[in-house]
Specification:
binds adenine; 15 strands; 17 helices; alpha/beta; 2 domains
Length: about 425
């Protein structure tokens, strides 16, 4: 069986950690049990480009239980858990091409190894697999029934492809499901970003000035968790409505240039390039720490940071690079500006990935079942699937809720009753 992992000898450790995560993923577990009986993915080759974590391993095992064969590569050079990759490579029907810290060339070689597998279904996180397929391997596109996309950045790229008329097959935007972005992006990114910063630096957050660039779902999560740790939180935003929400959520809101002067810790979660750049680095305090939790390593301008570091760059701890400016100030960049939560920690906890990956598994089934009716565009996750996942998650958490009475249902569908 084809694979490329760091050390197959890590498989046992990986297997134990995959099982540990499985205990926190009851909704995915239920889907896996059904898939085992119904085999909705029989004969389907899935090409997946996802962060290779214990949670992803449980998704892959669910797809295999459904009858699929899977080839998996990393969706970020720094996010692979090598023990997980080793364990998965020994699962029946799974080809894994992923090594933590792989260089750019290896990253794309691995991505192409997944495409060599000639997938019928693409499962992407960030759209690198889909864009490579569309740019460089067009001859294979006719074999693809459809795909799914995990993250905001990937959905933005897919919509741009659809707008340019180049998207050649249907893709379900898993990110847009309520049971995905309201939970994974907010509580997942919130917790795992703080986890990454703390694991990398061991800094005390209480009493620190913590600057969050971007107040989408990810930014909200990071800001609320930083506040919970006792930090003074500042939000930088470009959308007036979103900035207003941040103000009314009780945060200080100001332009990045002003925040640059006072921040101790900076986190970018904008999904856009250069949220922090030269003009900010020039103003930052000695000792400032910068981390990114957006999908790509473009949010902090590493090139400008390197150019300003005339005093040198050195690795002062694992995942912490110190850049010394001409005036002696030392600025710290975590995880090379890549996703700090996956680079320096383990990504989102399994309990939240349970819902994200339940959406992935059900969306894969949906694409295969409805391939003939779907056209080349970006689809949402069907509402019923999203609602089912919410219901199952509540059940699994042992939370009961009320049901509408007949009288209440009638009231909601009538218009005659007023004051
Ligand atoms: N994205 C964020 N956290 C993740 C995780 N734990 N597994 C896979 N993808 C992720």
């Amino acid at each position: 069986m084809d694979f490329d992992v760091k050390d197959p000898g890590l498989a046992e450790q990986g297997r134990a950690r995959i099982e540990w995560a499985a205990k926190e993923m009851p909704v995915l577990g239920l889907i896996r049990e059904r898939f085992e009986k119904e085999k909705p993915l029989a004969g389907i080759r899935v090409g997946a480009c996802l962060h290779v974590t214990t949670e992803t391993a449980n998704l892959v095992k669910t797809l295999v239980a459904g009858g699929a064969e899977v080839a998996l590569c990393a969706s970020n050079p720094l996010s692979t858990q090598d023990d997980t990759a080793a364990a998965l490579a020994q699962e029946q029907g799974v080809r894994v091409f992923a090594i933590k810290g792989e260089d750019n060339e290896t990253y794309y070689r691995h991505l192409n190894a997944v495409l060599d597998f000639r997938p019928h279904l693409t499962m992407d996180d960030g759209c690198d697999l889909v864009s490579t397929l569309h740019k460089e391997r067009k001859e294979q596109i006719a074999e693809v029934l459809g795909g799914t996309e995990e993250t905001t950045t990937g959905v933005i790229r897919l919509r741009a492809m659809a707008a340019d008329g180049v998207l050649a097959y249907p893709v379900v935007a898993v990110n847009d499901a309520n049971t995905k972005h309201l939970f994974d992006n907010r509580y997942g990114t919130g917790q795992s970003t703080i986890d990454g910063i703390v694991r990398a630096t061991n800094v005390l957050l209480a009493g620190r000035t913590f600057v969050v660039s971007g107040y989408g779902m990810c930014g909200r999560g990071v800001a609320s968790r930083a506040r919970g740790m006792g930090a003074r939180v500042i939000v930088c935003e470009v959308q007036p409505l979103t900035a207003l929400e941040a103000v009314m959520d009780g945060y200080e809101v100001m332009p990045s240039r002003d925040a640059a002067r006072v921040g101790d810790v900076f986190v970018t979660v904008t999904g856009d390039a250069h949220a922090l750049g030269r003009e900010h680095f020039e103003l930052m305090k000695d000792g400032a720490i910068m981390a990114n939790s957006g999908h790509f390593d473009v949010e902090i301008d590493k090139v400008a940071l390197g150019e300003l570091a005339v005093g040198g760059v050195r690795r002062v701890r694992e995942f912490v690079d110190e850049y010394t400016m001409a005036d002696g100030r030392r600025l710290h960049l975590l995880a090379e500006g890549r996703l700090v939560n996956l680079g320096a920690a383990e990504g989102h906890p399994a309990a939240v990935m349970d819902m994200s990956f339940a959406n992935q598994a059900l969306s894969a089934e949906h694409v295969v079942r409805h391939a003939k009716e779907l056209s080349p565009q970006v689809y949402g996750v069907p509402r019923e699937l999203d609602d089912d996942i919410a219901r199952l998650k509540l059940d699994a958490m042992g939370v009961e809720i009320d049901a509408l009475t007949d009288e209440q249902r009638h009231y909601l569908s009538s218009w005659e009753q007023g004051t």
